[in-house]
Amino acid sequence: MTFPVSGVTTNVLLPPLVSLVISFFTSMGGISGAFILLPFQMSVLNYTVPSVSGTNHVFNIVAIPGGVYRYIKEGRMAWPLTWVVIAGTLPGVFIGYYLRVLFLPDSKTFKLFVG
Hints:
This protein is mainly α and about 120 residues long. The protein has one domain (about 15-115). The chain has helices spanning about 15-30, 35-45, 50-75, 80-105, 105-115. Helix 2 (about 35-45) packs antiparallel against helix 3 (about 50-75). The longest helix has 25 residues, at about 80-105.
C-alpha cells in the first residue's frame, strides 16, 4: 500500500505491528518508545522528511497520558520531579523543532545528527 501524504510504500500491517511490538516492550520500562520508531521510519520505511519528527510527537502524545493518569490515580506522582521535567522539556521541544525544520531538513544531515 502507498500512503499518499508521505509517499511511503509498505505493507499496511507493518507500521501498526512494529508500533505494537515496540510499545509492548517499552511500556514495561515506563517509556514511550518513540525514540525507537524514528530509526524504523527513516531506515526501513525511508520516510526522511522533517515531518518524521512530528509522527514521534504524536506517538508520545498518545502513549504518555495513560501512564500519567495511572500514577496520579495511585497517588504515586512525584510532582516536584514532574515540574522539573516539564520545565526542561518544553524549551527542548521548541528548540528541537526549529533546529529540525530550519537547519536539518536534509535527511543525511539529520541522520548524522540523530546518530
